[in-house]
Amino acid sequence: MENTTAQQVQGVSMMAAAMFFLPVMDAIAKWLSTVDSVSPATVTLFRFGFQAMLAAMIIVAMTGVKSLRPVKLWGNLFRGVLMGVGGLCFYAAIKYMPLADAIAVFFVEPLMLTTLSAILLKEHVGWRRWTAVAIGFIGTLIVIQPSWELFGWVSLLPLGTAASFAFYLILNRRYGTADTTLVMQLYAGVGGTLTTLVALFFGAAFEISDMTFGLPANALSWSLLFAMGVIATTGHQLITNASRLAPASLLAPFQYLEIVMAVLIGLFVFGEFPTASKWLGIAIIVASGAYLIWREGKRKASEPAYN
């Protein structure tokens, strides 16, 4: 049964709130790595570690220790591994790249999801959606090109985040959600923490500065790291609840508020502002991604027609 208008408005409000909070978390990560000299891998470790701790505490307080046991342990842990890889890529990228640029490139994720759905899930993708995918990737190249000249391979790291998250969503489609959202967040945090620990091991072995561990030097840094865990837990809970209250086609435009917030934060906190060419690329990515999400909703409503 379709949710009521009031429920859909509530879902949209939750999505908008999440899009306000999540760029703040990314800005904190950038601040920690650029101002407080905390390595991106250390930031990632505490981001997922605090998320796991908070989710576990909430679950125990609400339903008891027995509720910590998941129905699908390995599936949830692997989702966490994908999120951990994505976090490592993204936090390393925003240490060097403007925040808005990195988030704009990340929003190529709906395009990757469409491509992976066709390859892995054998979903039919018609010419309209393939055209949107191609146009969206052109927009991505427009955003990446100036960053490539400045930062080289680092400019491609947000693509790694987008790919990881697209695979994460593929797993959600394939295996469903047998566990509660809090349990999924708990084991996403555990999987992300374990992944980061492995990265730190190799970072130390090969002397990769961005992948080495170092404790924060002051109370403010510790507070900011804990805040990241709170924002991650709250933001992803809002997104999950929003998805249950409103259709993806209605929520899609509000997801792109994250880019708007990233531009504002980048401008006022870091003195960053996208160039005209990057605005063009961002607009193309947003339009292509929004179209794909809208088309997916229309396709599901009118199956078996595919376009």
Would you spell out the secondary-structure blueprint of this structure?
Layout: H1 5-34, H2 40-63, H3 73-96, H4 99-106, H5 109-120, H6 127-151, H7 157-175, H8 181-205, H9 219-245, H10 248-255, H11 257-270, H12 276-301
Helix pairs in contact: 1-3, 1-9, 1-10, 1-11, 2-3, 2-8, 2-9, 3-7, 3-8, 4-7, 4-11, 5-6, 5-7, 5-12, 6-12, 10-12
Account of the protein in words:
The protein is mostly helical and about 300 residues long. The chain contains twelve helices and no strands. The chain starts with a helix and ends in a 6-residue tail after the last helix.
Residues in β-strands, percent: under 5%
Number of strands: 0
The multimeric state of the shown protein is single chain
Q: In which range does the helix fraction lie? A: over 70%
Largest sheet report: none
Provide the structure class.
mainly alpha
Q: What sort of overall outline do the alpha carbons produce when their principal axes are compared? A: globular
Output the helix-strand order: HHHHHHHHHHHH
Taking pLDDT < 50 over at least 5 consecutive residues as the criterion, the unreliable ranges are none
Question: Roughly how many Å is the radius of gyration?
Answer: 19 Å
Mean pLDDT: 87
Total helical elements = 12
Distance between the termini: 25 Å
